[in-house]
Design a protein that fits this description.
2 strands, mainly alpha, 4 helices, two-stranded antiparallel sheet
Amino acid sequence: PSKFVLVTDILDTFGNHVYDRVLRKAVLLPPGEGAPRLLPDSFTVDMLGEESTSICMNWLDAVARIAELVPRIYLEAATLPCRRLVGRGEYEAALMRLTAMVRGI
C-alpha cells in the first residue's frame, strides 16, 4: 500500500508539471499591446496559442501510445487536466475513454 501511495503521488506530480509547463508556454497577446501576458485564471481554449496546444497534444499522444493498459490508465488520469487545454469536449471524451479502459482490466 505504501508503494501505491508513492507511485500515485509521483503520477500526480507528473500531471501537474505537464499542465504547468503548457500554461507557462501559453501567453496572451492582447490586440494593440506589444508585450505578452500570462493567461488569466478563467482562460478559454481559444486564448491558447498554437505552440502550447501542440506541446499538450504531444504529451497526450505519448501517453496514448503506451501499450500496457494499467500504466496508460494511470497516466491518462494524471494528465486529465491537460485535456482542458486541447479543446472543448476533450475532457468528457477522455473520461469516457478512461471508463472504457477500466472495463478492460
